[in-house]
Design brief:
The protein has about 100 residues and is mainly alpha-helical. It has helices at about 1-25, 30-40, 45-50, 55-60, 85-95.
Length: about 100
């Protein structure tokens, strides 16, 4: 019986809280400030960490990896762009 009563009280409190939250409204600037605060809080380690870390580490992390253009995978396809003037010259020479 105590479990039933406890469940009833908890569910009643949740239903009343849900009704109260549906009627609760904040002005738009509060939502904007809250969003800005969440953005700063979620990126705090990136913002503050960049000021406190070693500059050589930052320089190394900003370097772009260089791709080796000499190695190609077996599935790669190479394209050549044909020059229309060369195609016309070749057709004239071959008599087409």
């Amino acid at each position: 019986m105590k479990v039933w009563l406890a469940c009833f009280v908890v569910l009643f409190a949740l239903a009343e809280l849900f009704d109260w939250l549906q009627e609760f409204a904040l002005p738009l600037p509060i939502y904007i400030l809250g969003g800005a605060f969440l953005a700063v809080a979620s990126n705090y380690d990136k913002i503050i960490g960049s000021y406190l870390s070693d500059p050589t580490i930052i320089d190394a992390s900003l370097e772009q990896p260089q791709l080796d253009s000499l190695t190609q995978s077996p599935n790669s396809i190479s394209f050549q762009i044909a020059n229309p003037a060369e195609n016309t010259q070749q057709k004239l020479e071959s008599g087409e």
